[in-house]
Predict the 3D structure of the following.
Amino acid sequence: MSLDAIHARQPDHPVAAQFTDRWSPRSFTGRALSEAEVMSLLEAARWAPSASNHQPWRFVWARAGEPAFAAIHQALTGNNLVWAGRAGALIVVASKDAVTNREGAEVANRTAGFDTGAAWMSLALQAHAMGLVAHAMGGFDRDRLAQAVGLPAGHTLQCVVAVGEQGAAEALPEDLQAREKPSSRRPVAEISRHGRF
Ligand SMILES: Cc1cc2nc3c(=O)[nH]c(=O)nc-3n(C[C@H](O)[C@H](O)[C@H](O)COP(=O)(O)O)c2cc1C
Protein backbone atom coordinates (compact mmCIF):
# COMPACT_ATOMS: atom_id res chain seq x y z
CA MET A 1 0.00 0.00 0.00
CA SER A 2 1.30 3.50 -0.81
CA LEU A 3 1.82 6.07 1.98
CA ASP A 4 -1.22 8.01 0.67
CA ALA A 5 -3.37 4.90 0.93
CA ILE A 6 -2.15 4.14 4.45
CA HIS A 7 -2.90 7.74 5.46
CA ALA A 8 -6.42 7.46 3.98
CA ARG A 9 -7.11 4.49 6.25
CA GLN A 10 -6.06 5.99 9.61
CA PRO A 11 -8.92 5.45 12.10
CA ASP A 12 -10.01 8.31 14.39
CA HIS A 13 -10.36 5.84 17.26
CA PRO A 14 -8.87 2.41 18.05
CA VAL A 15 -10.50 -0.29 15.92
CA ALA A 16 -9.67 -3.87 14.82
CA ALA A 17 -7.42 -3.75 11.75
CA GLN A 18 -9.86 -5.81 9.63
CA PHE A 19 -12.13 -2.78 9.28
CA THR A 20 -9.54 -0.41 7.86
CA ASP A 21 -7.49 -3.02 5.98
CA ARG A 22 -10.48 -4.30 3.97
CA TRP A 23 -11.13 -2.42 0.76
CA SER A 24 -12.54 -3.04 -2.71
CA PRO A 25 -9.87 -3.43 -5.41
CA ARG A 26 -10.78 -4.09 -9.05
CA SER A 27 -7.74 -6.07 -10.13
CA PHE A 28 -7.92 -9.86 -9.73
CA THR A 29 -5.43 -12.56 -10.74
CA GLY A 30 -8.10 -14.60 -12.52
CA ARG A 31 -7.56 -17.69 -10.33
CA ALA A 32 -10.85 -19.51 -9.92
CA LEU A 33 -11.82 -19.94 -6.27
CA SER A 34 -12.28 -23.50 -5.06
CA GLU A 35 -15.75 -24.58 -4.01
CA ALA A 36 -14.40 -24.88 -0.44
CA GLU A 37 -13.35 -21.22 -0.50
CA VAL A 38 -16.79 -20.15 -1.72
CA MET A 39 -18.42 -22.24 1.03
CA SER A 40 -16.32 -20.49 3.69
CA LEU A 41 -17.48 -17.11 2.37
CA LEU A 42 -21.13 -18.21 2.44
CA GLU A 43 -20.67 -19.78 5.87
CA ALA A 44 -19.57 -16.40 7.23
CA ALA A 45 -22.57 -14.71 5.61
CA ARG A 46 -24.85 -17.35 7.12
CA TRP A 47 -24.00 -16.29 10.68
CA ALA A 48 -25.02 -12.66 10.25
CA PRO A 49 -27.72 -11.35 12.60
CA SER A 50 -31.23 -10.66 11.29
CA ALA A 51 -34.60 -9.52 12.60
CA SER A 52 -36.36 -12.48 14.28
CA ASN A 53 -33.56 -14.61 12.81
CA HIS A 54 -35.44 -14.65 9.48
CA GLN A 55 -32.13 -14.86 7.53
CA PRO A 56 -33.56 -13.22 4.39
CA TRP A 57 -30.25 -13.36 2.45
CA ARG A 58 -30.01 -15.59 -0.60
CA PHE A 59 -26.91 -16.17 -2.75
CA VAL A 60 -26.24 -17.51 -6.22
CA TRP A 61 -22.57 -18.19 -6.82
CA ALA A 62 -20.43 -19.25 -9.73
CA ARG A 63 -16.70 -19.86 -10.08
CA ALA A 64 -14.51 -18.40 -12.83
CA GLY A 65 -14.72 -20.52 -15.96
CA GLU A 66 -18.24 -21.79 -15.32
CA PRO A 67 -21.10 -20.88 -17.72
CA ALA A 68 -23.04 -19.36 -14.79
CA PHE A 69 -20.08 -17.05 -14.09
CA ALA A 70 -20.24 -15.76 -17.68
CA ALA A 71 -24.02 -15.27 -17.45
CA ILE A 72 -23.71 -13.21 -14.24
CA HIS A 73 -20.75 -11.28 -15.63
CA GLN A 74 -22.67 -10.37 -18.79
CA ALA A 75 -25.42 -8.81 -16.65
CA LEU A 76 -22.96 -6.28 -15.16
CA THR A 77 -22.87 -2.76 -16.55
CA GLY A 78 -20.32 0.00 -17.20
CA ASN A 79 -16.79 -0.45 -15.86
CA ASN A 80 -17.89 -3.48 -13.84
CA LEU A 81 -17.99 -5.42 -17.11
CA VAL A 82 -14.39 -4.44 -17.78
CA TRP A 83 -12.77 -5.61 -14.53
CA ALA A 84 -15.05 -8.15 -12.80
CA GLY A 85 -14.47 -10.87 -15.40
CA ARG A 86 -11.08 -11.58 -13.78
CA ALA A 87 -12.63 -12.35 -10.37
CA GLY A 88 -12.29 -15.85 -8.96
CA ALA A 89 -16.03 -16.09 -8.28
CA LEU A 90 -19.13 -13.94 -8.65
CA ILE A 91 -21.74 -14.06 -5.91
CA VAL A 92 -25.20 -12.60 -6.49
CA VAL A 93 -26.72 -11.31 -3.26
CA ALA A 94 -30.51 -11.21 -3.10
CA SER A 95 -33.07 -10.85 -0.33
CA LYS A 96 -36.29 -12.72 0.29
CA ASP A 97 -38.68 -9.90 0.98
CA ALA A 98 -41.63 -11.54 2.75
CA VAL A 99 -42.00 -13.62 5.90
CA THR A 100 -44.82 -15.68 7.32
CA ASN A 101 -46.26 -14.03 10.44
CA ARG A 102 -47.77 -15.80 13.48
CA GLU A 103 -51.19 -15.84 11.80
CA GLY A 104 -49.71 -17.59 8.77
CA ALA A 105 -49.98 -14.55 6.50
CA GLU A 106 -47.19 -13.49 4.13
CA VAL A 107 -46.09 -9.99 5.13
CA ALA A 108 -43.28 -7.73 4.01
CA ASN A 109 -40.01 -8.15 5.89
CA ARG A 110 -39.15 -4.51 6.59
CA THR A 111 -35.49 -5.28 7.42
CA ALA A 112 -34.70 -7.74 4.60
CA GLY A 113 -32.33 -5.30 2.86
CA PHE A 114 -30.68 -4.21 6.10
CA ASP A 115 -30.11 -7.81 7.24
CA THR A 116 -28.80 -8.87 3.82
CA GLY A 117 -26.34 -5.97 3.97
CA ALA A 118 -25.00 -7.37 7.24
CA ALA A 119 -24.51 -10.76 5.56
CA TRP A 120 -22.57 -9.19 2.67
CA MET A 121 -20.24 -7.48 5.14
CA SER A 122 -19.61 -10.77 6.97
CA LEU A 123 -18.74 -12.31 3.60
CA ALA A 124 -16.39 -9.43 2.78
CA LEU A 125 -14.59 -9.68 6.14
CA GLN A 126 -14.27 -13.46 5.75
CA ALA A 127 -12.72 -12.91 2.31
CA HIS A 128 -10.25 -10.49 3.90
CA ALA A 129 -9.42 -13.02 6.65
CA MET A 130 -8.70 -15.61 3.91
CA GLY A 131 -6.30 -13.25 2.11
CA LEU A 132 -8.85 -12.62 -0.65
CA VAL A 133 -10.62 -9.42 -1.71
CA ALA A 134 -14.33 -8.82 -2.26
CA HIS A 135 -15.91 -5.97 -4.24
CA ALA A 136 -19.67 -5.34 -4.23
CA MET A 137 -21.37 -4.00 -7.37
CA GLY A 138 -24.76 -2.35 -7.69
CA GLY A 139 -24.08 -1.70 -11.37
CA PHE A 140 -25.97 -4.46 -13.16
CA ASP A 141 -28.92 -4.86 -15.51
CA ARG A 142 -31.74 -5.91 -13.21
CA ASP A 143 -33.76 -7.86 -15.81
CA ARG A 144 -30.73 -9.57 -17.29
CA LEU A 145 -29.38 -10.63 -13.90
CA ALA A 146 -32.81 -11.84 -12.77
CA GLN A 147 -32.97 -13.99 -15.88
CA ALA A 148 -29.38 -15.23 -15.49
CA VAL A 149 -29.98 -16.53 -11.95
CA GLY A 150 -33.66 -17.45 -12.29
CA LEU A 151 -34.69 -15.01 -9.57
CA PRO A 152 -37.87 -16.28 -7.86
CA ALA A 153 -40.86 -13.95 -7.27
CA GLY A 154 -40.72 -12.07 -3.96
CA HIS A 155 -36.95 -11.63 -4.05
CA THR A 156 -34.89 -8.49 -4.64
CA LEU A 157 -31.45 -8.39 -6.24
CA GLN A 158 -29.18 -6.41 -3.92
CA CYS A 159 -25.72 -6.63 -5.48
CA VAL A 160 -23.15 -8.82 -7.18
CA VAL A 161 -19.89 -9.48 -5.32
CA ALA A 162 -16.66 -10.09 -7.21
CA VAL A 163 -14.30 -12.06 -5.00
CA GLY A 164 -10.88 -13.54 -5.55
CA GLU A 165 -7.17 -13.09 -5.31
CA GLN A 166 -6.03 -9.48 -5.70
CA GLY A 167 -4.11 -8.75 -8.90
CA ALA A 168 -1.62 -6.02 -9.83
CA ALA A 169 -3.00 -2.52 -10.41
CA GLU A 170 -0.96 -2.40 -13.65
CA ALA A 171 -3.17 -5.14 -15.12
CA LEU A 172 -6.13 -2.72 -15.22
CA PRO A 173 -6.90 -0.18 -17.97
CA GLU A 174 -5.27 3.20 -17.19
CA ASP A 175 -8.39 5.00 -15.96
CA LEU A 176 -9.09 2.21 -13.45
CA GLN A 177 -5.44 2.04 -12.32
CA ALA A 178 -5.77 5.59 -10.98
CA ARG A 179 -8.71 4.49 -8.79
CA GLU A 180 -7.03 1.33 -7.47
CA LYS A 181 -6.39 2.56 -3.95
CA PRO A 182 -8.19 2.47 -0.60
CA SER A 183 -10.54 5.39 0.03
CA SER A 184 -11.07 7.45 3.16
CA ARG A 185 -14.17 8.01 5.29
CA ARG A 186 -16.13 10.83 6.90
CA PRO A 187 -15.02 11.44 10.50
CA VAL A 188 -17.01 9.75 13.29
CA ALA A 189 -17.99 13.24 14.47
CA GLU A 190 -19.79 13.84 11.15
CA ILE A 191 -21.77 10.58 11.07
CA SER A 192 -22.85 10.43 14.71
CA ARG A 193 -24.50 12.62 17.33
CA HIS A 194 -24.59 12.14 21.08
CA GLY A 195 -28.24 11.74 22.18
CA ARG A 196 -30.12 13.43 19.33
CA PHE A 197 -29.70 14.52 15.69
C1 LIG B 1 -24.16 -1.94 -2.54
C2 LIG B 1 -22.86 -1.52 -3.17
C3 LIG B 1 -22.82 -1.26 -4.52
C4 LIG B 1 -21.61 -0.92 -5.14
N1 LIG B 1 -21.57 -0.79 -6.50
C5 LIG B 1 -20.37 -0.69 -7.12
C6 LIG B 1 -20.26 -0.78 -8.54
O1 LIG B 1 -21.25 -0.97 -9.26
N2 LIG B 1 -19.03 -0.66 -9.08
C7 LIG B 1 -17.91 -0.48 -8.35
O2 LIG B 1 -16.80 -0.42 -8.91
N3 LIG B 1 -17.95 -0.41 -6.98
C8 LIG B 1 -19.15 -0.52 -6.36
N4 LIG B 1 -19.22 -0.51 -4.98
C9 LIG B 1 -17.99 -0.35 -4.19
C10 LIG B 1 -17.97 0.98 -3.45
O3 LIG B 1 -17.74 2.02 -4.37
C11 LIG B 1 -16.91 0.94 -2.34
O4 LIG B 1 -17.27 -0.05 -1.40
C12 LIG B 1 -16.80 2.28 -1.64
O5 LIG B 1 -16.27 3.26 -2.52
C13 LIG B 1 -15.89 2.20 -0.42
O6 LIG B 1 -14.64 1.72 -0.78
P1 LIG B 1 -13.97 0.44 -0.10
O7 LIG B 1 -14.94 -0.70 -0.22
O8 LIG B 1 -12.72 0.22 -0.92
O9 LIG B 1 -13.68 0.76 1.33
C14 LIG B 1 -20.41 -0.81 -4.35
C15 LIG B 1 -20.49 -1.04 -2.97
C16 LIG B 1 -21.68 -1.41 -2.38
C17 LIG B 1 -21.70 -1.70 -0.89
